[in-house]
Design goal:
Elements (H helix, E strand, L loop, with lengths): L23 H45 L4 H7 L9 H13 L4 E8 L4 E10 L10 E10 L8
Antiparallel strand pairs: 1-2, 2-3
């Protein structure tokens, strides 16, 4: 017995006629491309989000330290106790530090002056690159830092 179209006898029966794949690689390529695009979006845009969060923390720490330098010197000399200046002096110094970093995406969102420390909150906006194609434009990352004057005393 011979298979049709073959001069040799079959080893284990006749082979099945070849059936075309009819575009199965095209479907695989499309699905794989979408997966690669999403992974690239997570890498690039996720990195941008982490960078924005670290930048917000850095600027908030700088602003809080600058605000904590606004010491009431007369009160210190008279009582020996450290306290921050009354009014908006401390938060004004924090605003100055934040505005020096501002490129349109950095904002001071909170400044709370207490007697011996300042809490500063900074927001940094980041824009998505890959994920913007899926309707996610980016967001704002916030960080808060607290600083007080160093009195030189051990705690």
């Amino acid at each position: 017995m011979r298979c049709p179209g073959s001069p040799r006898p079959p080893a284990s029966g006749c082979p099945r006629p070849a059936v075309p794949d009819r575009g199965s690689m095209a479907v695989f390529t499309v699905l794989f491309s979408v997966a690669v695009f999403l992974l690239a979006g997570l890498l690039v845009d996720g990195g941008a989000a982490i960078n924005a969060r670290l930048r917000a923390a850095d600027i908030a720490e700088q602003a809080a330290r600058a605000a904590a330098d606004q010491i009431d010197v007369e009160h210190l000399r008279g009582t020996g106790r450290v306290r921050l200046l009354e009014g908006d002096a401390a938060c004004g110094e924090a605003e100055e530090i934040v505005s020096a970093h501002a490129a349109g995406d950095v904002a001071l969102t909170g400044c709370d002056r207490r007697e011996e420390e300042v809490e500063v909150t900074v927001s940094v906006r980041w824009e998505a690159f890959f994920l913007a194609a899926l309707g996610f434009p980016g967001s704002a990352m916030e960080a808060t830092a607290v600083a007080g004057p160093d009195t030189g005393e051990e705690a």
